[in-house]
Predict the structure.
Amino acid sequence: MSDEARTYLVVSPLAYTGKAEAFTYHHDKALKPGQVVEIRLGPRKSLAVVREVVSKPEFATKPIAGVVDVPPLPDYLVKLAEWLGSYYASSLSAAWSTLLPTGLTKKRRERKVREIAAGTGLPNKPLTEEQTAALEYMSKDSRSTQLIEGVTGSGKTRIYLELAAKELAKGRSVIVLVPEITLTPQLVGQFEQAFGDVVISTHSRLTEAYRHLSWAAAMKAYSNKSPRIIVGPRSSLFLPAYRVGLVIIDECHETSYKQEQNPRYDALTAAAQLVRLCSARLVLGSATPALRELKLAANGKIGHVRLTKRAGGQAQPVATIVDLRQKDLLRVSKFITQPLLEALTETFEAGRQSLLFINRRGSASSQICSDCGVVSLCPNCSLPLTFHADMLRLVCHHCNFRRAPVAVCPECGGSDLRYLGGGTKRIEAEIESLLPKARLARLDRDASDLAHIQSVYKGLQDGTIDILIGTQMVAKGLDLPRIDTIGVVSADTMLHLPDFTAAERTYGLLAQVSGRAGRGDQPGRVIIQTYTPEHPAILAAASNKPEVLIESELDERRTLGYPPYVNLLKLSYSGSTREAAQTAAGRLAVILSKRPGVTVVGPAPAFLETLSGKFHWQLAIKSDRRSSLVEIARSVPESWTADLDPSNLL
C-alpha cells in the first residue's frame, strides 16, 4: 500500500451477510461515498459500494480491484441503504443488493431503446370540481405526506399527472410506484402521452438486460442533472433520480409493496424515509386505503383528501348480495347461482363484457355452515380454523390450536357444513358449459406472462373477449369501459383466511373489483355471492361505505392487540421434519417469552406448513416498542427468518 493510497470502508451486495457489515480496502485515487467498485472476496471479484473514507488501519488491506465506470450513486440512496439495513434489521449487504442492478459490469450487445414520441402535455379535459379542490388543498398543506382517497374512476391518475407536471417545471424528478405488472402498461402510457421521453419505466418481468437499460438511463439523467419521471414497481424507488421532488404510490393499500425477501422492507415506509432525505413530498393514492394510513390521517399525521364521485359522471355500480345460505336459491352449477348466471347472460346478449372474480389464495378451506354462515373459529385467537385433509384436523395457524371438524353446527344445529374453495380453471369450465358461445379469457398466476396480459387487455379493449375470469390482478386499477357486470364467485374465501387482516383485505378487494364495472356509458352491477352477507366487510363493499367496516375493525384490532396499535414481528423456521420445526419454534418461544415488554404468540404451523420439502413453523411477537422487536430480529439464530412489520401472519 503506497503512502498516497486512501483507505475506504466498502459494502458488497454479495458479501457474507452475517456479522461482517463492511470491509476495509485501499485505493490510490480519491473516491466518493456511493462510488461503485470491484473488490476481491477470496478467489472471486465482487461489486461493492464505497461507504466512507476511514483512517489507515493497523492491519494490511487489499487494494480495490477496479472502479466501475458509472458515476457515484446519489447521496440520498447511500443514506437510504444505511437506513434500510438498520430499520429492518437487515445486513448492509442485503440492503445494497436491493439498490444495485444485477449484471452491472457485464458486457452487453447493443440493444435498441424503445422510442417514445414527444409528450402532448396534460389532458385537455377540464378538471372536476373535486380534482380542483384536491389540488388546491394539497398545494396549501405543509405536511410531507398526503393521502388521496378516491372512489374507483374518480380521476386520481389525473391528479398524479398535474402534480408531476408541477415538479418537472421546478426541475425536480418524480417517482411513481404501481403494485402490479398488469397496471404498469396502462399508467406508463398515460405518463408517456403527457411527458414523452422524460418517462423511464420498468417492471419485474423485464429481462436483466432491459432492467439494466432502465437503470443506466436513470443514472445518465441523474449525471446530466436532468429531471425524469420514473414509473414502475417498488424497486423503482431505488433508481437514481436528480432532485427528487415527489414520490407517488398508486394503490397504496396493496401488500405487494412489502418485499418478501431480505431486506423485507415496506415501500411506503421506505418512500417516507426517501422524501425526508430529499425534502420531497409523498402522495399515497387508493380507493381503499389501509387502516394504518387512515389512522395516521385521522390523527392529523398526514394530509387527507377525498374524491367521492367518478370523473366521468358515471354512477357507482349497484351491488347485489346473493345469500348462499338460502336453501331455495337455485344453483346452476357448484359455484354459479341463477342470479349471477342471469346477469352474465344479459350482459353477453347485450354485447357487453363481464368479469368473474375468484380469490385463489382462499382455496385452503375453512369450515362453514351453509345454513347460518358461521365459520369454525379458534377459541384463543378468534381467527378461522383451516382444514388439513392430511391430518383430518382444523388448525389455527396463529396459536396451533387443533380439533376435529364438527359434524353439527354449534350455532344453529345444522348439519350442512362445507369447505370453501374453488379455482379459476374450475370456474372457467363451468362458464364454458353454461355459456358455450361466450368468448372467455383467464388471468391468474398460471396465465400471467406479459404477452398474455397484454393480449387479454387488448381483447377487453377491442371487444373480442366477453367474460374475463381472474384473481386479484384483475381487481386493481384497470380502466375497462366495456365491463358492465362483475361477479364475485365467493367473497368468503377471502373473508375467512386465518389472519388479522382478512376483513380489511376482503373489503379492499371487493371494492376494487366492483369499481371495474360501469366505467363506460352503461350502468354497472356487481353480484356478490357469500355465506356471510351481514359481515361488515361485505356490507361496506356493497354499500360503498367503508366507515361500516373501519370502526368495527379498529376496535377489534385494539382489543386483540394487532397493528396499527402494536408493532409486530413474524419469525419463521424451516425444518426437514414437522417435529424438528415444532421443537425449534418451541425452544425459541420459551426464550423470547422471558423478555420484558413483548408478547409471544405461538409457535404454530405456517399457513403453508409444507413447502419445497420443508416444514415451516412461526412465532408472532408483539410489542409497543419497535426497537424491542428490532433487537430480537437481530439476535435470532441465522436459521430463522425475521419479518418486521409483516403485511400478514399467513
The longest strand covers residues 598-611. The chain has four domains: 6-99, 129-307, 318-365+420-555, 567-644. Residues 208-223 form the longest helix (16 residues). The chain has 17 helices and 28 strands.
